[in-house]
Every structure is written in C-alpha cells, then in structure tokens.
C-alpha cells in the first residue's frame, strides 16, 4: 500500500503519514510492478428481463486488486456494487445472466472454469462475507458443524483434530474470545456481531487469497463495526490477503481501503487511491457523495449539500451519454452526446467525466 | 437552545418490563427494557435519542407515541398526563398531536392504497376537513410541500423510490398538523444523497410548522447535524444527556466516548484502526 500510495501522490498534498509502512508486513512495500491478484476487464453483466430482452446491470467495469490490497467499491444502492462482486465468483443464476469481458483470478480465467473448479474456488481461494449474517448461516446446524463442513468441502485429507484446530484458529482470527463455546451454539444463540465474526471465520477457514466483503458491517452497531473493521484490517496485515470491500459508507472507505472505485448506475465513475480520492475528488458524483455526508467536526452546517433527484432506473437513462447527467450540476450538452470514457487524471486516478477541467475551475470560483 | 418555556413533552421516570413466558414456570423471565428514563422535549426543539441496538431507543419512542404503555412512570403532553388514556381519548387528544415516521418507508404504507388515499385516511380518522375533496386538497398541498408532485398522488407505494416514499410518510404524519414528530431511524435506510435531501426537508418543515422532533437514531453524524439536545441510552438507562456541543465536545461517560470514537471518519489521514 505504501508503495502504491507513494507512487501516485501528486502535488505533495498528502502528508507522509503512511511513510513508515508500520502497518504492513515486511516485503510488500516495494511493489510497483506487483502482479494483480484479481483483474476485471470490461465486465458487462446483463440479466434477462421481460420479453427476452437483456438489460445491462453492469457495464464496462474495469479494475484490479493486488496482493494485500484493500479495494473499496462505493456507491448508492442499485449502482451495481453487489452485481460486480457476485460476478467475480459467478454467483448469478447463469440461465438468465450473460457475462462479457474477462475476470482473471490468480492467473485463471473465471469464465472458463468448470462447475467443479468453481466449487473449489468458492470458499477456498475466494472467501465471501454477505451483509446479513443471520441469513447466511444455517439455523439448524451448530456453528461448529458449519465451520467443519467448510473445511471438509475443500481439504479432504485432514484428520479430525486438524479440522478442529483450524476451526478454532479461524474463529480466533475473526475475533472470537471463546471459540470452543461458540462452536457448540446455534446461530440464534449468538448476537449479530458474533454471527458476523462466525461468517468471517467461515470465509477465512481455507486461507483465501481474496476476501470479498459485501457490506459486512452495515447491519451492525458502530461499536461492533469498529471492532470488525479492525479484525478485517488485521487479517490483511497478518495473512497478506486481498480484500474487496463493498460499502456505501465513506467513513468506512476512508479508514479501510487502499484504493477506491466509485460506482454509479453500473459504471465505475471514479477510481483513485484513497488519499487522492478524499483530497481531490474529481467526478461530480464523488464530490456530491462526500459533500452530502454530515460532517463530524468543524461547524455544523445549516443545510447539507445534496445531489438533486435520486438514482434513476437504468432503463430511464436513455441514450449513450453520461449516466449522471440527469443529476449533475455541471451538465452540458456535450455530456449527453457520446459515450463517456474513463479520463486519466494522474497515474492510477481516473474519472468518467469529460468536463473535468471546467469543473475544477468551477469549484475554485465557488469556494 | 435557549428555550425557557414549559416543555411540550415530559417523560417522567418510565420503566418498561417485557415478560417472556417460557414453557415452564422456570423458563419465564423479565427483560427490563427501560429503567428510570426521564427527559423533557422543549417546544420547537429536536431531541435525539442515541444508543446501540437493544438500548431501548425505539421502545421509548413507541411509549411516547402511546403505542405501548410503560410499566410505571408517566408521560405528559402540554400538561396532560396521557399515560392511562383510553384508546378513544388517545385518538381525540394525542394522536393528532404526536405522529411517528418509521424506519422502513415501504412497510409503513399499505401497498394496495394509493398514497393520496393513505394521507386522506389520516385526515378522516382525525376528523379534519369537511368533505373528501377538501381533504384531497389538503393532501395535495402537503405532498407538494414535501417535494413531490401532485401528479404522484394516485400512485401506489411500489411506484416510488425509498426516498420519495419516506417523503410520503412524512406528509402523512404532518397532514394532521401534529406538534411533535417522532422519527424512528427514519433516514437510516436512505442513500447518502437522498438522506441529505430528507434531512434538509425536515429542517425546513420544523420551521414552517413549528414542530418538535424526537429523533431516534444510531447515526451520530446525522444527530450532530439535526439535534439540539441528545440523550444517550445504554441498556435501557439514560446514561448521559446534554446539548450537541456538550455531548460531542465533552462527553462525560466512557460509553459515550466509545460511541463517538467508533464512527469511521471520512478522512483517510486520520487513522482509527491502528490501535488494535
């Protein structure tokens, strides 16, 4: 992370607060050329709608995750965050889903894997944490049974004691204070925060290289959220695994992530290292999102700044122009005419907006 | 806020126990949801109740809205103790004055009723307005006041987005001209950009209709924006109370400090996760 952040800083606006790399395990500081753990290229996911029509839920999504990197995907609801993350493990019903583009995980092409290979990948090298822990656990099985089941599905050669030991280790890593007692309980006997730790434990148990966490703390209290974020970050530091964190909370992104992809209506509209994104947000949507969050320090504003309107249905956004045009305060005629591509701003910082230069000036005048 | 008038609402040491009966006598247990909670809501003020889940925030709101009776203690609205009012007396004197907006805008409305009719129904129950057309006019007025178009009045809940529907719920609550609005996690389910719109709307409406808000939420950044006073609940007890400046600037209990310290700051330069 340090290397990455260092390489892309521009204008010296960010202090050297991460310069020592004390939060990183050794040997990962110098990784400018490190190969990506996951590469998503031009992903298009379309679902079958009424009358056999196909609707693109996600279009032209392009990102990569390096080893040991925490990538944040942010955006409001129905922006395609979850569709994207489900696609990485091909979790959509394939009878009514079409994928285009490519997803490469650790050298293998996800779309050419057989069902058996996919099963090995899911819960093996890729762990997944869903938003609601209660509905991702089986209410009729004890926590222990569910952990053991996950181990047996992937590591058939282990003996009974070894399985037990790895269950306990996984729960401990997920922040459980008494793993043995937890394993004998049923899901209803544990609180929401404890259950989410169990789910994290299950995702970790086969030592995944990539963990996908889809709104892992949204349903939890802030105090529990903070503990779990610490657990997740600690796991990245300890095991060096990559994490994709999907969230709508800008605070969580700021605290957790190395890089951020901002999504709006199925497209990535801005992509940047976290420091850069918060210091110099360029896309009007990112700027709007950051400004709409009520501030926690400084003056209390009389009014919050808002993004006008609400996220439209994809079908309502006609034509090929910018999808944010209907809500954008900087919209011009040219925005609605042609397909807007990602514009490069700095190394590893891009935004899908053709009026970046004008917007920058506009903001200067306004402030 | 410097408001020296008599408080519009007083909550006097309420207790609420929930008794769960087990299969055997041994299995029965008592859960103390609220213990000795007292606070006052001044006129035109916003009072925020914060705390973790299970701390009794919503129970307090439901008791004030007279959806539930406290085990002991009393609630006084404009000098009248309405704790033991009969349902008809409540409807006559309290329901029109204290209204509630819930967290999930979809489940708060009847899916088979056009939103205009849902608003008119509230007026019918409160016997406001003389004729249906009269009430419909009031509904249209209110729907436009919350930022929706009068054309949308014949639509059904599924034709709205979450933010629009929460506006409908606010309109339905305000159309009977209450003095107190209880907002139980009313903006928590909304997206950030829409949440900001609804919060601004609430600020405007407060001025326009001289409302007092009881704002129940776990989101402290929202509280800081909208509240005048804050009460912090923990396991059914009010552990701390004060103005926004006092609570955020100088929290007195560890619990409040922990709560405040747990909000992820939207600033990557300030590290909160390094300690553990």
From TrEMBL, chain A:
Record key words, sorted: ATP-binding, Cell membrane, Hydrolase, Membrane, Nucleotide-binding, Transport
Segments forming domain ABC transporter: 38-290
Top EC group: hydrolase
Biased composition (Basic and acidic residues): 15-29
SUPFAM superfamilies: P-loop containing nucleoside triphosphate hydrolases (SSF52540)
One of the record's GO molecular function terms: ATP binding
Primary site of residence: membrane
Record's bilayer topology term: Peripheral membrane protein
InterPro entries: AAA+_ATPase (IPR003593), ABC_Ni/Peptide_Import (IPR050388), ABC_transporter-like_ATP-bd (IPR003439), ABC_transporter-like_CS (IPR017871), Oligopep_ABC_C (IPR013563), P-loop_NTPase (IPR027417)
GO BP annotation list: peptide transport
One Gene Ontology CC term in the entry: plasma membrane
Subcellular localization: Cell membrane
Entry-linked Pfam families: ABC_tran (PF00005), oligo_HPY (PF08352)
Coiled coil: none
EC number(s) on file: 3.6.3.24
Region annotation (Disordered) ranges: 1-31
Family named by the database record: Belongs to the ABC transporter superfamily.
PANTHER family: DIPEPTIDE TRANSPORT ATP-BINDING PROTEIN DPPD, OLIGOPEPTIDE TRANSPORT ATP-BINDING PROTEIN APPD
Name under which the protein is recorded: Oligopeptide/dipeptide ABC transporter ATPase
Organism: Bifidobacterium psychraerophilum
From TrEMBL, chain B:
Short name of one Pfam family: ABC_tran
Residues annotated as domain ABC transporter: 9-260
PANTHER family, per database record: D,D-DIPEPTIDE TRANSPORT ATP-BINDING PROTEIN DDPF-RELATED, TRANSPORT ATP-BINDING PROTEIN
Protein name: Peptide ABC transporter ATP-binding protein
Keywords: ATP-binding, Hydrolase, Nucleotide-binding, Transport
GO molecular function: ATP binding; ATP hydrolysis activity
Signal sequence segment: none
Superkingdom per UniProt: Bacteria
EC number: 3.6.3.24
One biological process term in Gene Ontology: transmembrane transport
SUPFAM superfamilies: P-loop containing nucleoside triphosphate hydrolases
Record family assignment: Belongs to the ABC transporter superfamily.
């Amino acid at each position: 992370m340090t290397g990455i952040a260092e390489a892309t800083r521009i204008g010296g606006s960010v202090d050297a607060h991460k310069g020592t790399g004390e939060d990183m395990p050794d040997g990962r500081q110098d990784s400018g050329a490190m190969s990506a753990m996951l590469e998503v290229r031009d992903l298009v996911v379309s679902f079958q709608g009424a009358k056999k029509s196909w609707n693109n839920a996600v279009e032209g999504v392009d990102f990569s995750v390096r080893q040991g990197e925490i990538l944040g995907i942010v955006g409001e609801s129905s922006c395609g965050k979850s569709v994207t993350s489900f696609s990485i493990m091909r979790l959509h019903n394939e009878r009514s889903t079409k994928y285009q583009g490519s997803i490469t995980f650790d050298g293998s092409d996800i779309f050419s894997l057989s069902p058996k290979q996919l099963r090995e990948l899911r819960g093996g090298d890729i762990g997944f944490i869903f938003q609601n822990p209660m509905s991702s656990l089986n209410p009729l099985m004890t926590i222990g049974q569910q952990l053991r089941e996950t181990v047996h599905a992937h590591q058939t050669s282990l003996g009974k004691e070894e399985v037990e030991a790895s269950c306990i280790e996984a729960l401990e890593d997920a922040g459980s204070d008494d793993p043995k007692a937890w394993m004998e309980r049923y899901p209803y006997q544990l609180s929401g925060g404890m259950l989410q730790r169990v789910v994290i434990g299950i995702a970790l148990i086969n030592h995944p290289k990539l963990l996908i966490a889809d709104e892992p703390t949204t349903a939890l209290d802030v105090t529990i959220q903070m503990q779990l974020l610490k657990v997740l970050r600690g796991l990245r530091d300890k095991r060096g695994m990559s994490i994709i964190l999907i969230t709508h909370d800008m605070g969580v992104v700021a605290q957790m992530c190395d890089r951020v992809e901002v999504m709006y209506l199925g497209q990535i509209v801005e992509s940047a290292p976290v420091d850069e994104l918060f210091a110099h947000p360029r896309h009007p949507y990112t700027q709007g999102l950051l400004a709409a969050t009520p501030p926690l320090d400084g003056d209390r504003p009389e009014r919050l700044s808002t993004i006008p309107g609400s996220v439209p249905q994809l079908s309502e956004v006609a034509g090929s122009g910018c999808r944010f045009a209907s809500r954008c305060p900087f919209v011009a005629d040219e925005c609605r005419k042609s397909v807007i591509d990602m514009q490069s701003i700095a190394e590893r910082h891009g935004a899908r907006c053709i009026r970046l230069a004008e917007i920058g000036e506009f903001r200067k005048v306004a402030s | 806020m410097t408001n020296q008038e008599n408080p519009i609402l007083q909550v006097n040491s309420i207790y609420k126990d929930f008794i769960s009966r087990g299969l055997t006598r041994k299995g029965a247990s008592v859960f103390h949801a609220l213990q000795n909670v007292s606070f006052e809501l001044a006129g035109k003020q916003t009072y925020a109740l914060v705390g973790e889940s299970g701390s009794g925030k919503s129970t307090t709101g439901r008791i004030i809205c007279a959806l539930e009776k406290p085990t002991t203690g009393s609630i006084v609205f404009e000098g009248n103790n309405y704790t033991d009012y009969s349902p008809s007396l409540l409807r006559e004197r309290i329901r029109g004055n204290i209204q509630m907006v819930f967290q999930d805008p979809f489940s708060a409305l009847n899916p088979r009723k056009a939103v205009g009719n849902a608003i008119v129904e509230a007026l019918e129950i409160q016997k406001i307005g003389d004729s249906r057309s009269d009430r419909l006019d009031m509904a249209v007025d209110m729907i436009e006041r919350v930022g929706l178009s009068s054309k949308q009045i014949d639509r059904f809940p599924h034709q709205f987005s979450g933010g629009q529907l929460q506006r409908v719920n606010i309109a339905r609550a305000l159309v009977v001209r209450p003095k107190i609005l209880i907002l139980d996690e009313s903006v928590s389910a909304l997206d950030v950009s829409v949440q900001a719109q609804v919060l601004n709307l609430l600020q405007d409406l407060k001025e326009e209709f001289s409302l007092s808000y009881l704002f129940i939420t776990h989101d402290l950044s929202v509280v800081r924006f909208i509240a005048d006073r804050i009460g912090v609940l923990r396991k059914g007890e009010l552990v701390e109370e004060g103005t926004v400046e006092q609570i955020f600037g100088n929290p007195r209990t560890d619990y409040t400090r922990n709560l405040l310290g747990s909000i992820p700051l939207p600033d990557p330069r300030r590290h909160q996760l390094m300690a553990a």
